[in-house]
Amino acid sequence: MRQPQQERSRTTRRRLVDAAVECLAERGWNGTTVAVIAERAGVSRGAAQHHFPTREDLVAAAVEYLGEEQISELRARAAALPDGPSRAEPVAEMLLDLYTGPMFRAALHLWVAASTDENLRAVLVPLEARVGREAHRVAVELLGADEARPGVRETVQATLDLARGLGLANLLTDDTRRRRQITRQWARILEPAVATRTVRESA
Amino acid sequence: MRQPQQERSRTTRRRLVDAAVECLAERGWNGTTVAVIAERAGVSRGAAQHHFPTREDLVAAAVEYLGEEQISELRARAAALPDGPSRAEPVAEMLLDLYTGPMFRAALHLWVAASTDENLRAVLVPLEARVGREAHRVAVELLGADEARPGVRETVQATLDLARGLGLANLLTDDTRRRRQITRQWARILEPAVATRTVRESA
Fold first, then answer.
1. Interface test with A, best of B26, B29, B116 (most A CBs within 10 A)
2. Which of A145, B18, B36, B65 could disulfide-link A194, Cβ–Cβ 3.0 to 4.6 Å?
3. What residues does the HTH tetR-type domain cover (chains A, B) (predicted)?
4. Secondary structure (H, E, C), chain A
C-alpha cells in the first residue's frame, strides 16, 4: 500500500505546483491564493494545505520544482548537440530563450511582489540563490566553459543576466525576432570567451 | 501672469511624477492610486486629475519623464569622460548600473502589472518602445559605437538587456559586488566590439 500512496501524494503535489505557476502567470501574486490554486488543481483546500501550509510555501515549491524540470530538459536537449565551436549558437539560443515562458512570468510576479512583501522575500531570497547557482552550473556545462580562465565565469554570469533581461523584454510583446539577432551576435562573443574546452576536445 | 502660472503647473506635475515613482517603488501598482499619489505630493485630488485624468496616465508620464531625466544625467556624466578605449569601463559601469535604482523598481511594478492588465499594457507598450529607443541612442553615443559595423548594433542592444537583467538581480538583494565583476568583464568584451570610433579618433 505504501508505494501507491506515495504515488498519489506526488501526483497531488505536482498538480498543485502546475496550477500555482499557471495561476501566477495569469493573475499575478494578488490573484494567487491557496483556494484558487486548489480549485484549479482539482484538489481540496485541506489537502492543498496538508502539502503546503501557506501560499508562500506553495509558490516557492512551484518555482523551484519547475525550474529544476526546465534545467533537466535543457540538459537533455543539449546532450543531442555536437561538440566544438559549432555548439555556441544553439547553446546561446537555448540559454537566451530560458526566461521567455510562463515559468519566468510566474517567477517575475513573485520577485516583484516580494520587493514590497517581507514574508515572501524571506522565502524567495534563498530560493533565488539556489536556482541561480543551478542555472549557472548548467550553463557552464552546456557551453563547455573553462572557468579557470580569467573572465569566463563572469561571461557565463552575464549570459544568464542577459537571458533574464531578454525575458523582461518579452513580457508585454513578442520580442522573438530581435532576440534572434542578439543571440547570433552573442554566440560570436561567447565563442572565444568560453568554448575553449570543447574546441580543444575537437581539435 | 502667464509665466508664473505655467511655472506652478510644471511644479505640480513634477511633484505628482516624483510621488508616483516613490509610491510605485514602495507599494507596487495595487497600492498606487491617484488619491495616494496626490496626498503624497501635497496636491488636491482634483488638481491631480486635471493634470492626469487616470492613474495609467500619471504613472506612464512619471516613468517617461524620469527616464528622460536619467538619460540626460547620463549624458552629462559621460561628457566628462576621456575619449578612447579607456572609456569602455566607466561607460560599461554607467550603463550596467542604469536599472538598479527606484526608477527601475517602479517601472518593473508597472510592467508586471501590465502583463495581466490590458488597459495598462496599452499605455505602456508604446512608452516602452520610445524609452527603449532613447536608451539605445544614448548607449551608442556613450560607447562611441559604429553601428555600421556588423554585430555592433546587437552588442549595444545586448548591453541594455544585460543591464535590465542586472536590475532584476538587484531587486531583492544588493548585487553590487557581483555586478562590478561582470562590468569589468563586460568592458573587455565591449572594447573590440564597439569602441572603434573613439579608438580611431584617439590614434
1. B116
2. A145
3. 10-70
4. CHHHHHHHHHHHHHHHHHHHHHHHHHHCCCCCCHHHHHHHHCCCHHHHHHHCCCHHHHHHHHHHHHHHHHHHHHHHHHHCCCCCHHHHHHHHHHHHCCCCCHHHHHHHHHHHHHCCCHHHHHHHHHHHHHHHHHHHHHHHHHHCCCCCCCCHHHHHHHHHHHHHHHHHHCCCCCCHHHHHHHHHHHHHHHHHHHCHHHHHHHC
CA distances to A1, A13, A33 from A50, rounded to whole Å, are: 20, 10, 15
- Give the Cα separation of A34 and A17 in Å (integer): 11
Query: In which band, very low, low, confident or very high, does the pLDDT at B40 lie, cut at 50, 70 and 90?
Result: very high
Residue B173 region, left (φ>0) first, then alpha (ψ -120 to 50), else beta? beta
For residue B42, being part of any structural domain is answered with: no
Please, which pLDDT band fits residue B198 given cuts at 50, 70 and 90? very low
Question: Is residue A13 in some structural domain?
Answer: no
Residue of B23, B162, B177 to mutate, testing the A interface (most A Cβ within 10 Å of its Cβ): B162
- Which class for B116: exposed (0-12), middle (13-18), buried (19 or more C-beta within 10 A)? middle
Q: Which domain holds residue A159?
A: 55-202
The pLDDT of residue B1: 54
pLDDT tens by residue, A35-46: 999 999 999 999
- Check CB contact under 8 Å for A166 and B165: yes
Q: In 3D, which of B81, B79, B100 has the Cα closest to residue B90?
A: B81
Domain assignment of residue A79, yes or no: yes
How many Å lie between the alpha carbon of A1 and the closest alpha carbon of chain B? 44
- On whether the CB atoms of residues B147 and A185 are closer than 8 A, the answer is no
